[in-house]
Amino acid sequence: MITWVVLFLITIFYVGLMLNYLVGWNKLSEAAFKSIEIKTLISVIIPARNESANIANVLQAVLQQNFPKNLLEIIVVDDHSTDDTAMVANEILSRQNGIAYQILHLADIGKIENAYKKKAIELAIQKAKGDFIVTTDADCMMPANWLYSLVSHYEATQHKLIAAPVKYTFDDSFFQQFQALDFIGLIGITGASLQQGFYNMCNGANLCYERKAFYEVNGFKGNDNISSGDDMFLMHKIAEKYPTQISFLKSNEACVITHPKQNWKEFLHQRLRWTSKSTSYADKRITAILVMVYLFNCSIIGNALLGFIQPCFFYMAITQLLIKSIVEFIFLNTITAFFQQKRLMKIFLSAQLIHVFYVIGVGLIGQFGSFNWKGRNFKK
């Protein structure tokens, strides 16, 4: 009897969580694009390690922004690249007239133990001239009104930190579409959570904040030994000081586009890197939610296995999977429609069972295993 009550409560929790995300997303107002005079000097920071194949594209996307050139500074931080990333960046930026830029080298600050990306951003902010910091990744692309949308939202709200959407480009393969669907769901959860004042997720590929606020919370101090989390840990610290001045910009004009991983190994290592920090959050509500979601997915597989002994457990597993599929379909259908990626829903059903095993595997290994990122090996 107790077992059935626990399973029921876990399932109800998951349903309530997903419906809460749906409500949060629908309450989030879509930002209307308005033409205003921009006044804020900004610094766009691009950490880059062995990105010679991508750095030209992202720099051209930034240079072609519909944004006042006299208010734009571009900072590329070369993170110990073994290719010609810095040279390519310098060749492109040095040909521009009226654009302030800096090419910095992380190797110049000496030995770094673990948090390379945090140190790269920290170095760039120390050198930045802008009052407003925008971070992105070297493998991203942006629509022409990206910066204008971010900064106009900042000037209208004066929010200390603004998270903005990221989505994947993808081909017709199931693997790429699975990644894109999973990722767009995370972005939807990000927007929904921030709308409700629950700061559990953001993405450093499209994040902006006041330079002053960064220093007010002592930047990454306190979590600078953790390899990832340059986005979420900073958001948590700023939210603690300014709990009502964090927002998510719900806008396709502000959406950054990046690429899925090329194989399952790279994909798993990326997700392991994200999962590795899940027990380090100061706000233990985040950890509690992650644990409950993990237990819900474990219960589906556990019930399916117990079904070989008692068929009633198998029926429970089927019921849970059906409930999971219904609430997730409603949520993801809404998110993919907004980001004009609704064709991803064609693989939704076939992705469901894989998603359960993926959540269980990554959640477990991420707490004890190691992962590779940018050619470096990290341990939990």
Question: What is the annotated CATH architecture of the largest domain?
Answer: Alpha-Beta Complex
Counting helices, strands and paired strands, the structural category is alpha/beta
Determine the CATH superfamily of the largest domain.
Spore Coat Polysaccharide Biosynthesis Protein SpsA, Chain A
CATH fold label of the largest domain: Spore Coat Polysaccharide Biosynthesis Protein SpsA, Chain A
Write down the domain tally: 2
Shape type? globular
Note the run of SSEs as H and E.
HEHEHEHEHEEHEHHEEHHHHEE
Beta percentage is 5-15%
Distance between the termini: 38 Å
Q: Uncertain regions: pLDDT < 50 for 5+ in a row? A: none
Mean pLDDT: 90
Largest sheet: 7 strands, mixed
Q: How would you write the strand order of the largest sheet? A: 3-2-1-4-7-5-8
Number of strands: 11
CATH C-level category of the largest domain: Alpha Beta
- Figure out the total of helices: 12
List keywords for this structure.
globular; alpha/beta; 12 helices; 380 residues; 11 strands
Q: What topology emerges from the helices and strands here?
A:
Blueprint lengths: L1 H26 L14 E7 L6 H9 L8 E7 L6 H10 L5 E6 L10 H12 L4 E4 L10 H12 L3 E3 L2 E3 L5 H22 L11 E4 H6 L15 H10 L4 E3 L7 E3 L5 H12 L8 H23 L4 H28 L9 H21 L1 E4 L2 E4 L1
Parallel strand pairs: 1-2, 1-4, 2-3, 5-8, 6-9
Antiparallel strand pairs: 4-7, 5-7, 10-11
Helix pairs in contact: 1-6, 1-10, 1-11, 2-3, 6-11, 9-12, 10-11, 10-12
